[in-house]
Amino acid sequence: MLPHGAVRPAAGGSSASGRGPFRPPRACVRSGSWTFPDSQLPWWGRVLGPRIMAMTTYAQPRTEVAPLTLDARDTASLEELIRTAAQLPGPLEHTLMSDAFATLAEHLPTRLLEGVESFRDTPPDHGLMVVRGLPVGDIPATPGAYGSNVLGETHPSSLLVALVAHPLGGLIGYEDEKSGALVHDVYPVASDAAKPLNSGSSLFDFHTENVHHPVRPSHLGLLCLRPDHDRRAATMVASVREAEPLLSAADRETLRTDRYRSRFPLSFTRGLAEDARPVTEPHPVLADGPAGAPGTRVRFNMHNTFGTDPEAQQALERLNEAMHTVHRAVRADRGEMLLVDNRIVVHGRSDFTPRYDGADRWLRRFYPYPGELTADVLVRAGGRVLSKDSYGRTGTGEDTRADA
Predict the structure, then answer these.
(1) Core-most of 3, 186, 232, 344, by most CB within 10 Å?
(2) CA-to-CA distance for 332 and 131, rounded, in angstroms?
(3) Where is the stretch described as Disordered (predicted)?
(4) pLDDT in the model for residue 59
(5) What is the location of CATH 3.60.130.10 in the chain?
(6) Helix crossing, 156-165 with 72-85: angle to 10°?
(7) What is the pLDDT of residue 135?
(8) Rounded to whole angstroms, how far apart are CA atoms 206 and 340?
(9) What are the start-end ranges of the H helices in 58-109?
(10) Residues 390/215, Cβ–Cβ less than 8 Å
(11) d(Cα 261, Cα 281) in Å, to the nearest integer?
């Protein structure tokens, strides 16, 4: 029996739409039919599972993006910069703002620095950059409990991502996410396995990072310390520049109206009951960039954004389908970094099977942001962590720079 609205693939593996083979999440495949084990899913899985299955044509990922691969000389240069950065005084939040750290970042290997600056100033339509050959230092066993912080701010991987983020504007953090950490550890947690979280291991559908916040990171960075056992986990990325042409004019117009709202993500609302999760004011999903940075920008989270009327919801679902049609899947290995333009790209994660044995997938996540941050949106003056009271104060942190 098919979920309501789903289409069984035609012979040969193609979907009825002709856009490629339909590939439902592995957990939803049972004896040749597509069903949903409601008893094993939380409420959001029961609600979103059928909707995702019904609306999505999972096309084959597009061709891999050509990576920037560092050579041994580049790696040695980075290691020296990291050792020097580790000697700078103060916590990382203040170190980032020092002239000494800025000078170190200006001496990143030439190919890496120029590559990141080019990605910042003229992002490709796919909105993705992949870097290989990065030094990540000695890596202990992958943690298993939520909130573990076993590496610290002076670990080579922490300083590496801070250096790479600097030409993109520098790191920011959020007081109400991971206690304001500037570098996040992403690894599977057994109790979160089925949740739409970075600590989960089930399918995590497309989303803008921190969709609910008025000061969203301009970019998202993911540094791989350790891949998953089966090399199955993939970061899925899809660009609005490639997906928007697949939409009708009517849908493009609808998506530009303030007929959408977004619930605060679970990562910002741990400990809150579902009905206590805040919801944003109405906002568009698509919008034009500021003067000097033309082109469409995107803002949605398929687990948390919803249309305020049926027409708006249907347009959102068709956008997500278009994103799946054009998406790319990247499976990172140790020492590989993904940089994503969070203004034009949504991202997600495929499902994978963790073993919780100390050797599971482990990424370091970070948020670059180029805009000015004034004292009224910060936890500490002169810092880089946004206060949990900063919501609604959009005038001081809005991303309006042409090169942002």
Answers:
(1) 344
(2) 10
(3) 1-24
(4) 53
(5) 66-386
(6) 100
(7) 98
(8) 13
(9) 72-85, 92-95, 99-106
(10) yes
(11) 6
Which helix (H) or strand (E) segment holds residue 272: the answer is: none
Q: Give Cα 215 distance to the centre of its chain.
A: 15
pLDDT band at 275 (very low <50, low <70, confident <90, very high): confident
Instruction: Give the span between the Cα atoms of 203 and 238, in whole angstroms.
Output: 15
Strand 362-368 versus strand 260-262 pairing type: unpaired
Q: How many CA atoms lie within 13 A of 305 on its CB side?
A: 32
Asked if residue 184 lies in contact with residue 148, where contact means CB atoms within 8 angstroms, the answer is no
- Which residues, 6 or more positions from 371, have their beta carbon under 8 angstroms from its beta carbon? 169, 215, 218, 397, 398, 399, 400, 401, 404
Measured CA to CA, the distance from residue 88 to residue 125 in angstroms comes to: 38
Global pTM value: 0.84
With CA atoms as reference, report the closest residue to 57 among 237, 234, 321, 238.
321
Q: Using one digit for the tens of pLDDT, what is the confidence trace for 315-364? A: 999 999 999 999 999 999 999 999 999 999 999 999 999 999 999 999 99
- Span 66-91, pLDDT tens digits: 999 999 999 999 999 999 999 999 89
**pLDDT more than 70, % of the chain:** 81
Residue with tokens 């500037």: 182
